[in-house]
Design goal:
This protein has 2 domains: about 35 residues, no CATH class; about 130 residues, Alpha-Beta Complex (Nucleoside Triphosphate Pyrophosphohydrolase), CATH 3.90.79. Helices cover about 15% and strands about 40% of the residues. It contains 2 helices and 10 strands. The strands form 2 sheets. Strands 4, 5, 6, 7, 8, 9 and 10 form a 7-stranded mixed β-sheet that branches. A 3-stranded antiparallel β-sheet has the order 1-2-3, with no helix packed on it. The chain starts with 14 loop residues before the first strand and ends in a 6-residue tail after the last helix.
């Protein structure tokens, strides 16, 4: 955000970033808030195994991730889970089987801009493992990992690392 200098209202190079959430122009008093964005992450679980995807783009290309993404305007978090799982995995989701778990703050770095996010974690239990049709522009592979064998260093985002640190200890192996 600190790289943005031109005010979209007056065009002067007097746009200032407060370092937290606000851009303001000292010439025309324009203000733009860069508020926290909502995002979802879905823990698809079969028994003690969790379905991870491997990121095929930055940020964190090559790291493990949960299916999910940013909430679109006028969309509920549950609708986002349904849309994202279909877009990424071609998986049809029954919203009634989604279970909200928790929320955690995160920072998503993309093209030199830090987006503060609030990641909403959901769990979706499936009765059997299944083959996926992946959206290869976003995901290079999917992998089922036993909860006890999740290596936090392999996970892409801090909020997911914090989440799995607690989640791994919630249920007996």
């Amino acid at each position: 955000m600190k790289d943005l200098k031109f005010c979209p209202q007056c065009g002067n190079t007097t746009l200032n970033w407060d370092g937290v959430q606000k851009l303001s122009c000292s010439t025309c008093d324009y203000v733009l808030y860069h508020n926290t964005a909502a995002a979802v992450a879905v823990v698809i679980r079969h028994g003690n195994e969790i379905l991870f995807t491997r990121r095929n783009q930055e940020p964190q290309k090559g790291k493990l991730d949960l299916a999910g993404g940013f909430v679109d305007p006028k969309e509920s978090a549950e609708q986002t889970c349904e849309r994202e799982l279909f877009e990424e995995l071609k998986m049809k989701l029954d919203q009634s089987k989604l279970h909200y778990l928790c929320s955690l703050p995160n920072v998503y770095e993309y093209k030199n801009i830090s987006y503060n996010t609030l990641d909403l974690f959901y769990e979706y239990e499936v009765s059997e493992k299944f083959d996926l049709k992946l959206e290869l522009s976003e995901i290079s592979e999917s992998i089922w990992i036993n909860k006890a064998r999740i290596n936090l260093d392999d996970i892409a985002f801090d909020s997911q690392k914090i989440f799995f640190r607690a989640y791994k200890n919630l249920e007996p192996e």
